[in-house]
Amino acid sequence: MNVVSPLPAQTPAQTGGKMVNAFDPNSLDHLDPALRHAIERRSRLLGPAYRLFYQEPVEVCRGQGTRLWDSQGREYLDAYNNVVSVGHCHPHVVEAVHRQMSTLCTHTRYIQEGILSYAEAMLPSFGGRIGAEGHMMFTCTGSEANDLALRIAKHHTRRRGIIVTEEAYHGNSELTAGFSPSLGENAPLGTWVRRIPAPDSYRHDPATLGRMMAEAITREAHLLKRHGDGLAAFVADSLFSSDGVYATPEVLKPVIEAVHAAGGLFIADEVQSGFGRSGEAFWGFQRHGIDPDIISMGKPMGNGFPVAAIAVAPEVVASFGRDMRYFNTFGGNGVAMAAANATREVLIGEGLQENACHIGAVLREGIAAMAKTHDSIGDVRGAGLYIGVEMVSDRAAKTPDATKAATIVNEMRKRRVLISATGPSANVLKIRPPLVFSQADADWLLDTLEEVLAL
Predict the structure, then answer these.
(1) Would 411 disulfide with which of 67, 439, 451, 452, CB 3.0-4.6 Å?
(2) Residues 207 and 244 both lie in one domain
(3) Which PANTHER family does the annotation name (predicted)?
(4) Domain-located, residue 246
(5) Cα–Cα distance between 149 and 129 in angstroms, integer?
(6) Is the pLDDT of residue 19 over 50?
(7) Is 70 exceeded by the pLDDT of residue 3?
(8) Are residues 331 and 388 in the same domain?
């Protein structure tokens, strides 16, 4: 939601009426001439839809591990990027992609080892029906994966209604943008979409959240049925990233029961919360003790190479496979699978799930200690290396403070530590670094945050 060039009907720092971590396209004068020229060139060549982070955008030209460098050699700490889950330019992934690109890269209508070995290795990790007898289907992006998941859900249930949380993001295809309310008020939702509140553990008793969500599911599913749509699926990111990062475990147990009672499928969107990021489990949904019908995955899967997939229970995809078939020219190509296989090997071989658990706890404990002396910190939450820090103007009233969050994000950027903000009020600091984040990286982030809070 970050703006690159002037948009006539839009305040530069807002989209859909909400403050965002935005670059103001009308504020170029304070920038270095070279950076200003690059932004103007980008706007001219790429158009108004491309967005930039930060009041002073970051130029990057090289990365390694948790670090990025610009053309002037300035070093940044990347505490935001979950795409390169095992770190920028990990040598094992780079070598695997180079080797496969030098050998063969073609589509999936031939028998190839890479795609089979990946599915064979990955499927057991899901557990439940999918782990025992499920299938994997490959795409290029998480948006494509969620699009395919909903196509299958609608075909299987013969319904089209979709329920999501209030600020969910699930993709930018025509279908997935239609059930991604976080894209803002100017991005229309489908008439077959209903929203329910996210499990806000800061403002509600965590023990009641699952029941509250389940009751909301039942109400909205009934309305979908009354309007002739019925419930095809409930789609959830189990860390509720765009909703503000909520990590209470077990919340989704009563929800999946309500979804199934209404005749729908449960789709676990693991693009943000999967691949060990939560620290406590390899897949985010496993923290809730549930058995989804479809699981989608993307961004971190190939450590920056565009590869994504769904995993699906056999009975859910049976009629789709019989009636519809599926083909994707680039989804699951040899190079993509080399990247995915190598990324998986690094995740397991370097113990990155365990690292996420340990370093995530260090970060949360460090920020919680700051909250004792900084009343602007209302809540510190998350799991593993996905952390949300809620900024408030009144701790007693729990009043969201988007201005404070934006100030912190941009002051951190000035000190070359990169984070962002999220949530319906854009007041939640989003800390989501590569899983190779070290103790030294955590110290740099915590020291910088303490410095910024003291301003």
Answers:
(1) 452
(2) yes
(3) ALANINE--GLYOXYLATE AMINOTRANSFERASE 2-LIKE, PTHR45688
(4) yes
(5) 16
(6) no
(7) no
(8) no
Query: According to the model, what pLDDT value does residue 20 have?
Result: 60
Whether residues 325 and 408 share a domain: the answer is no
Last residue of a domain, one of 349, 377, 393: 349
Residue 143 and residue 171 in contact, taking contact as beta carbons nearer than 8 Å: yes
Comparing C-alpha atoms, which of 208, 270, 211, 263 is closest to residue 236? 270
Q: Which two tokens stand for residue 334?
A: 């040899």
Task: Categorize the per-residue pLDDT at 29 as very low, low, confident or very high, splitting at 50, 70 and 90.
Answer: confident
In the predicted model, is pLDDT for residue 4 greater than 60?
no
Cβ-contact 3, 24 below 8 angstroms: yes
**Domain co-membership, 216 together with 312:** yes
Separation CA 251–CA 241 (nearest Å): 15
pLDDT, tens digit, for every residue of 287-308?
Answer: 999 999 999 999 999 999 999 9
Burial label for 23, CB within 10 Å (0-12, 13-18, 19+), is buried
Domain of residue 422: give its range.
Answer: 58-86+352-453
Q: What is the pTM of this model?
A: 0.94
- The answer as to whether 66 is a domain residue is yes
Neighbours of 254 (CB within 10 A): 19
Does some domain include residue 249?
A: yes
Angle between helix axes 334-349 and 91-101 (nearest 10 degrees) is: 160
Per the CB < 8 A criterion, the answer to whether 248 and 213 are in contact is no
